[in-house]
């Protein structure tokens, strides 16, 4: 049997202020910690021999089924339609991995999770994928697959099963080494219009920050049973980005509520434009039997 390797899994930030912080002005250098966290994750991936990065991207919204953007290559110049004053005219070019994308869809469909892989497509990448790839993949070292993580009418448990399908596709059918990232925030309430500057480095409300910080403590303790139990309410009450389907997919990949490993925080929790952010590595352990 072909045996691939899931080498690294992580929950990562993609805040557009990372790109903004590259340029002269009042925010120059303000996201160095987040950028350095991405560069550290890249170093780990290279040391582990990773050939492909799969991103659960909460900036790709879908209304039905699970979708995999596995075009053969990606390239262009990106401006965010959401925050065009933060990310504008950002060039990118990355190779894709159609073969792995189709394997993921095949396994998910066999498991009863309706999924589609798109390799013959004009789908472009969203900034939940483009921002981390800017700092991890500037030399096109990795192939890239992006999976829709903003799933408006989906069930978090089913997204967990989709994550499990990704793991099975990698380990049972792919000849290679893969890293998987959930690209999204913790709490995700933006600053009210007109008040954005005062929240540049803050979380919107003390309640949101306190819940986020408790969540990070659960992660550091490896208490995934408690976190999975609170995930639906957490996603709802704290405005989880993409309803936190990226996080559900990541946990499904790792064992869901029976996952037990503590995370390694690479970039400590921080506030950005009202939202809660982190870079954290989720150790890959054998799936519970």
From TrEMBL:
InterPro entries, per database record: HPCD (IPR011984), Xdiol_dOase_suB (IPR004183)
Lineage top rank: taxon: Bacteria
Entry-linked Gene3D superfamilies: LigB-like
Keywords linked to the UniProt accession: Dioxygenase, Oxidoreductase
Single Gene Ontology MF annotation: 3,4-dihydroxyphenylacetate 2,3-dioxygenase activity
Top-level class of the enzyme under EC nomenclature: oxidoreductase
Family annotation (CDD domains): HPCD
The keyword Oxidoreductase is annotated on this UniProt entry: yes
Residue span(s) of domain Extradiol ring-cleavage dioxygenase class III enzyme subunit B: 9-282
Enzyme Commission numbers on file: 1.13.11.15
Alphabetical list of PANTHER family matching this protein: 4,5-DOPA DIOXYGENASE EXTRADIOL-LIKE PROTEIN, 4-HYDROXYPHENYLACETATE CATABOLISM PROTEIN
NCBIfam families for this protein: HpaD_Fe (TIGR02298)
Listed name of the protein: 3,4-dihydroxyphenylacetate 2,3-dioxygenase
């Amino acid at each position: 049997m072909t045996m691939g390797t899931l080498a690294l899994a992580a929950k990562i930030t993609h805040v557009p202020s990372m790109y903004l912080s590259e340029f002269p002005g009042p925010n120059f250098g303000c996201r160095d910690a987040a950028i350095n966290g991405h560069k550290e994750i890249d170093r780990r991936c290279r040391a582990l021999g990773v050939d492909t990065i799969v991103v659960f991207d909460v900036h790709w919204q879908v209304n039905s089924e699970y979708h995999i953007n596995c075009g053969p290559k990606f390239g262009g110049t990106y401006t965010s339609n959401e925050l065009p004053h933060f990310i504008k005219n950002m060039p990118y070019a990355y190779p894709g991995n159609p073969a792995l994308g189709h394997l993921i869809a095949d396994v998910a469909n066999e498991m009863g999770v309706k999924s589609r892989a798109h390799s013959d497509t004009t789908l472009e990448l969203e900034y939940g994928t483009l921002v981390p790839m800017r700092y991890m993949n500037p030399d096109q070292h990795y192939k890239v697959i992006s999976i829709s993580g903003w799933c408006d009418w989906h069930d978090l448990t089913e997204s967990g099963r989709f994550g499990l399908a990704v793991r099975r596709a990698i380990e049972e059918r792919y000849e290679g080494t893969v890293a998987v990232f959930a690209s999204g925030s913790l709490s995700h309430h933006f600053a009210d219009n007109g008040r954005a500057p005062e929240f540049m480095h803050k979380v919107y409300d003390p309640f949101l920050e306190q819940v986020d910080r408790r969540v990070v403590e659960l992660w550091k303790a490896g208490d995934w049973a408690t976190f999975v139990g609170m995930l639906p309410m957490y996603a709802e009450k704290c405005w989880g980005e993409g309803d936190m389907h990226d996080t559900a997919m990541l946990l499904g990949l790792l064992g869901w509520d029976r996952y037990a490993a503590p995370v390694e925080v690479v970039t400590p929790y921080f506030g950005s434009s009202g939202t809660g952010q982190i870079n954290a590595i989720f150790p890959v352990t054998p799936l519970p039997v």
